[in-house]
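Severity: low
Component: inverse-folding endpoint
Summary: output formatting inconsistent between runs
Steps to reproduce: submit the following structure tokens with default settings.
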């Protein structure tokens, strides 16, 4: 974070090392000089309106492209905070400046990666989904929606717990919470209701996704062949669907 303070005459009275490094000059050559002198005529002209508004008592916030003489184009976020004296008059303002170039590039790369992931997931032959930190679905692929018999938007917004067999809900909830808390890959196995009403044993594998603002698991599931061969379990599921005494 680059921090500076300018008085009502737009003269630098304080600046930290970040400001000095940004301008490529020692702090001693900045302090006591005007913003126009330090920034240069062109950069000052772009920011003059915001500077004058801050000295009128209006807090300013903006993001802009800055043509740095040695670093090239940089994305910069700036905030000008008025300093009001005891008499109620503005006596200066603080400048809080942050170079967001690398962050913006990382965000763009993350969005591109997410787009590729979702495109690939939609063509995967297995059920796939991404869970938010609040345990709602952030994304579901086509196979997931087909299993539930609805659109992807409907499947994403649906209460996924309602599709778990009543005898498996508590266990799967406990195991999934423990798995997510471990921040390790974990496996679950249980019965889920398909669109045609059939209960199917599914085995899911979930892995945490780390990165900017991302710590929720991505999961995939396929039919559990070992479970499907256990006829007593399937018979029980069939009896449960028919109801008692049927």
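Observed output (run 2 of 3):
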């Amino acid at each position: 974070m680059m921090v500076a303070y300018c008085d009502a005459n737009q003269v630098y009275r304080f600046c930290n090392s970040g400001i000095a490094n940004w301008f490529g000059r020692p702090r001693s050559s900045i302090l006591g000089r005007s913003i126009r002198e330090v920034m240069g005529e062109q950069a000052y002209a772009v920011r003059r309106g915001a500077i004058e508004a801050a000295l009128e008592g209006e807090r300013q916030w903006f993001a802009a492209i800055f043509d740095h003489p040695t670093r090239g184009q940089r994305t910069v976020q700036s905030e000008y905070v008025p300093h009001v004296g005891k008499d109620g008059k503005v006596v200066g303002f603080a400048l809080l400046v942050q170079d967001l170039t690398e962050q913006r590039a990382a965000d763009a790369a993350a969005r591109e990666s997410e787009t590729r992931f979702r495109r690939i997931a939609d063509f995967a032959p297995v059920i796939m989904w991404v869970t938010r930190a609040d345990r709602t679905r952030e994304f579901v692929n086509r196979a997931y929606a087909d299993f539930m018999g609805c659109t992807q938007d409907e499947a994403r917004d649906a209460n996924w717990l309602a599709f778990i067999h009543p005898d498996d809900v508590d266990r799967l909830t406990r195991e999934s919470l423990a798995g997510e808390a471990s921040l390790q890959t974990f496996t679950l196995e249980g019965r889920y209701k398909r669109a045609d009403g059939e209960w199917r044993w599914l085995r899911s594998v979930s892995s945490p996704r780390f990165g900017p603002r991302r710590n929720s698991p991505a999961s995939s599931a396929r039919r559990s062949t070992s479970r499907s061969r256990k006829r007593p379990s399937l018979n029980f599921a069939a009896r449960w669907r028919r109801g008692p005494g049927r």
